[in-house]
């Protein structure tokens, strides 16, 4: 029998929740936590990659709580889960196809190695599940492997993909993609882009050019600029948000590779620090291992009370 999504999520976040449980161990006792215990709680949350802002917010909220039956480990974990959910709920927002006229253009960005190309395929699959027609555009022309990988996924999904010559102009691929998607009446066009951060200026110029081309064809496009983050990068993922917000005008996040990392708490740090929509999270390599983000379930899984 195949695992349920919550089982997979629990497995994916297991190291994160074990780390947090380990860090929280030994805190507890009376109906209210002492200042020293609250300091320990805050440190435990920071050590679990939830970040100083979220840790302070949760600490302050727990400080107000009265634990009628005593603050044992379970009660504290429950309280932490509730406060994490408070942080995550406002940013949980599925990626939706809303553009009119079609296509709805999603620009997908992220550093090489973040799982960007695979995530594009998984997003396409999510759209297909909602009966939308999808087209892909291989705008990362600097890595032949990226175009090849996207073609393989497109074949598996049965969706068309627009490609260009290796090292060619990404903006012209995007132009061809929008034209083809418009002619076919595709609901969504998902565009891969280069993930080079070594030269921010070059990347910024390239993305600006892509935006200009899109704007000429469809003034509303891109409708979404989605940044793919690799959870195993922990706090480095937050630095990537900083950079890509500046160079690409990120409108939402997808977090991948939550399977087996102890750093899943960075999801909470990102939500608290940036407030950007989190569209989906990925916990594995299979095509259906990326799902819309459920804040209450994720909060309970991180806190180990699911």
Question: Can you put this structure into words, describing what you see?
Answer:
The protein has 2 domains: 5-91, SRP54, nucleotide-binding domain (Four Helix Bundle (Hemerythrin (Met), subunit A)); 104-294, 3-Layer(aba) Sandwich (Rossmann fold). It has helices at residues 5-12, 14-24, 35-47, 52-63, 73-88, 116-129, 144-157, 170-184, 200-217, 235-248, 266-274, 295-302; strands at 104-109, 134-138, 161-162, 188-192, 224-230, 252-256, 278-282, 290-292. It is built from 12 helices and 8 strands. Helix 2 packs antiparallel against helix 3 (35-47). It has 306 residues and is of the alpha/beta class.
Index terms:
single chain, 306 residues, alpha/beta, Four Helix Bundle (Hemerythrin (Met), subunit A), Rossmann fold, 2 domains, eight-stranded mixed sheet, 12 helices, 12% strand, cell membrane, P-loop_NTPase, signal recognition particle binding
State the fourth-level CATH superfamily of the largest domain: P-loop containing nucleotide triphosphate hydrolases
Give the proportion of residues in helices. Answer: 40-55%
Order of helices and strands: HHHHHEHEHEHEHEHEHEEH
CATH topology of the largest domain: Rossmann fold
Model regions low in confidence, pLDDT < 50 over at least 5 residues = none
Report, as a whole number of angstroms, the end-to-end distance.
Answer: 21 Å
The rough form would be described as: elongated
Residue-averaged pLDDT, rounded?
90
So how many helices? 12
Write down how many β-strands occur, each being a DSSP E stretch of 2 or more residues. Answer: 8
Radius of gyration: 21 Å
Give the structural class: alpha/beta
| Overall structural domain count | 2
Give the amount of beta strand, in percent.
Answer: 5-15%
Q: Write down the CATH class of the largest domain.
A: Alpha Beta
Let me know the largest β-sheet.
8 strands, mixed
- How are the strands ordered across the major sheet? 3-2-4-1-5-6-7-8
Oligomer: single chain
What is the level-2 CATH architecture name of the largest domain?
A: 3-Layer(aba) Sandwich
Family: Belongs to the GTP-binding SRP family. FtsY subfamily.
EC number: 3.6.5.4
GO molecular function, one term: GTP binding
GO cellular component, one term: plasma membrane
């Amino acid at each position: 029998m195949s695992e349920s999504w919550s089982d997979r999520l629990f497995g994916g976040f297991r190291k994160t929740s074990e780390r947090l449980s380990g860090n929280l161990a030994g805190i507890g006792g009376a109906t209210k936590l002492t200042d020293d215990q609250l300091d320990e709680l805050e440190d435990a949350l920071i050590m679990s990659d939830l970040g100083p802002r979220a840790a302070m917010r949760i600490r302050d909220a727990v400080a107000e709580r009265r634990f009628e039956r005593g603050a044992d480990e379970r009660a504290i974990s429950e309280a932490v889960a509730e406060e994490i959910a408070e942080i995550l709920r406002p940013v949980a927002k599925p990626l939706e196809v809303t553009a009119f006229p079609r296509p709805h253009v999603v620009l997908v960005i992220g550093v090489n190695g973040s799982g960007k190309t695979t995530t594009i395929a998984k997003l396409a699959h999510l759209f297909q599940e909602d009966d939308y027609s999808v087209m892909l555009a291989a705008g990362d022309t600097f890595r032949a492997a990226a175009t090849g990988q996207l073609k393989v996924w497109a074949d598996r999904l049965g969706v068309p993909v627009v490609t260009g010559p290796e090292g060619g102009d990404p903006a012209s691929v995007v132009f061809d993609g929008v034209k083809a998607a418009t002619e076919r009446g595709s609901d969504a066009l998902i565009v891969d882009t280069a993930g080079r951060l070594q030269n921010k200026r070059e990347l910024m110029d390239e993305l600006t050019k892509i935006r200009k081309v899109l704007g000429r064809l469809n003034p509303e496009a891109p409708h979404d600029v989605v940044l793919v983050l690799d959870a195993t990068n922990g706090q480095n993922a937050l630095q990537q948000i900083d950079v890509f917000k500046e160079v690409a005008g990120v409108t939402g996040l997808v977090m991948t590779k939550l399977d087996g990392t102890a750093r899943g708490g960075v999801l909470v740090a990102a939500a608290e620090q940036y407030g950007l929509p989190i569209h989906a999270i990925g916990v594995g390599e299979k095509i259906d291992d990326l799902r819309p983000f459920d804040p209450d379930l994720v909060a309970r899984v991180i806190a180990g009370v699911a």
